[in-house]
Amino acid sequence: MSLNNTPTSERIHIGIFGRRNAGKSSLINAITGQNLAVVSDVAGTTTDPVIKSMELLPLGPVVIIDTPGIDDVGELGKMRVIKSYQALNKTDIAILAIDSTAEINDDDRQLIKRLEEKNIPFIIAMTKSDENENPSVPKDFANNLIHVSSKTGKNIYELKERITKLRPCTENTNRIVADLLQPGDFVVLVVPIDSAAPKGRLILPQQQTIRDILDAGAVSIVTKDTELESTLNNLGKKPKLVITDSQAFAKVSKITPDDIMLTSFSILFARYKGNLKTVVQGAKTLETLNEGDKILISEGCTHHRQCEDIGTVKLPKWIEEYTGKKINFDFTSGTEFPEDLSAYKLIVHCGACTLNEREMKYRLKCAADQNIPITNYGILISYMQGILMRCIAPFPEFSE
Fold first, then answer.
1. Is the fold of 8-165 the same as that of 179-269?
2. Are 222 and 189 a contacting pair, CB within 8 Å?
3. Per-residue pLDDT at 214 exceeds 70
């Protein structure tokens, strides 16, 4: 990924929903002016949500989500419908595609109900209007509806204009780290290079943090944990802050003098997503765990797991060592996140750098509604190593 690209998590997510053969894929191609989605007369062509990042004028950088039909049938069909509804959790703006040659039915009404429950702004696009110019439309949907044709281009521009007007008014104005810095400050970023590190690039939170430091007029110095001590000795100027990968907390904490602020990428992103106080409180749940309790470890992204993967290997090991108890663990990644969390005593989430604000808020609300404590990787690791208070000390919200 280029540093100049808008990360997926920062883009407006536009979800296209509807029954099979409602014209969802054709509508996406018409809106974007590209052949992004496979179009076929065969019902159920889209079998999994398809996500594409792009520029959509006049809205700007967006993510388009093409979803399976909400009326799919059979065992596989039910699973596809679940995937479609899961896509609502990350959708900022929804388009419900309804075939003009058919009538609005219970599947459509059920989706509209869910959109309203989740406060997702939406438009009903009556597709294939070239085949039926005067479809029957219930009066209660008339003000939220537009007739379009992907074939002739009818009202496609108008649809895009209406999508733009639904753009969320409150975008994330938080900063990752820039609000803690002054121009000219030095910030040292500790990036271990081990078997789990991607070849030839930095991971997304590291890239975004570097960019935020540059925007503040500060100076970023990137080093490995094995080179941190010599880096600090040779700088010639005391850094304002050291930011480390959570896995290296113990080593970095010992090397970094107490008069230099210390935190981690995952802690910064918990703060950036607006949930730092919640996850700090959640870490204390470790003290109340009993033998056989179950913990959910959830990652927002999907990646090839290494033999020393932090989520599935290191964290479970560290938690059992800290508690002295045998704990049961479940793992999820990507868009997978259980609606029923009642089996868990604690949720340990990643920093959520790849999740947009709406999806992370959904996960936090799920946990809060079911009274399940939630924390994240960096917070939990720093808590187990006895350095949590030091790692949250840089943040004004904890100075009260």
1. yes
2. yes
3. yes
Fold of 277-384: Rossmann fold (3.40.50)
Residue 94 binned pLDDT confidence (cut-offs 50, 70, 90): very high
Length of the chain: 400
| Distance, CA of 320 to CA of 297 (rounded, Å) | 14
Q: Domain 8-165: give its CATH superfamily.
A: P-loop containing nucleotide triphosphate hydrolases (3.40.50.300)
Lowest mean pLDDT among 31-35, 110-114, 169-173: 169-173
Q: Please give the sequence-ordered ranges of beta strands (E in DSSP) within the chain, or none if there are none.
A: 12-18, 50-56, 60-66, 93-99, 122-127, 145-147, 186-190, 219-223, 241-244, 261-264, 294-299, 328-333, 346-349, 374-376
- What is the C-alpha to C-alpha distance for residues 136 and 270, in angstroms, rounded to an integer? 48
pTM of the model: 0.73
- Distance, CA of 44 to CA of 69 (rounded, Å): 6
Render pLDDT for 327-350 as a digit per residue (tens, 0 to 9).
999 999 877 888 899 999 999 998
- What are the residue ranges spanned by the domains of the chain? 8-165, 179-269, 277-384
Cβ-based neighbour number of residue 110 at 10 Å? 13
Class of domain 179-269: alpha beta
3-state SS assignment for residue 10: helix
- Asked if pLDDT for residue 68 goes beyond 70, the answer is yes
